[in-house]
Amino acid sequence: MKEFKYKIIGGKKVYDVTDVICRKLLKVADEAIINCFPKPGKGFSVAVLTKTGNIYEGVSYISDTYTLTMHSEATALAHAAIHGETEIIAITGPNCHICKQLIWENSLQSDIDIIVVIKENNQIKKVPISEMMPYPWPEKKQ
């Protein structure tokens, strides 16, 4: 089990995720895109990092009607949950607003301000989900 350092900011844990780990997360997400359904390589993929140091990928699962489509963030969170891991400390992005809401709700339940890892101009950006949700709903755990 990997130990990550964290700080308490705004009442939530914010874990220190190194650039090396962020690049590994981004690589896992990039490699997972071939598993998108129904067309390999067509869709989106992400990777989540759990508090224990495990990485789980998720891919788009697109339905013909689109109404039943599962976003890669939802499948990654479910993939981790299937393995008994619900304490997510980082996820790759950028993410659509529906998925930001899902990440926010996971953050509320775990009291972890999940870091969204984005690669921009070959630089790693780490943005806490709380910064991406300035007017969140719900504001606190239900």
Automatic annotation (TrEMBL):
Superkingdom field: Bacteria
GO molecular function: cytidine deaminase activity; zinc ion binding
InterPro entries: Cyt/Deoxycyt_deaminase, Cytidine_deaminase-like
Gene Ontology CC: cytosol
Name this polypeptide is given: CMP/dCMP-type deaminase domain-containing protein
SUPFAM superfamilies linked to this entry: Cytidine deaminase-like
The family this protein is said to belong to: Belongs to the cytidine and deoxycytidylate deaminase family.
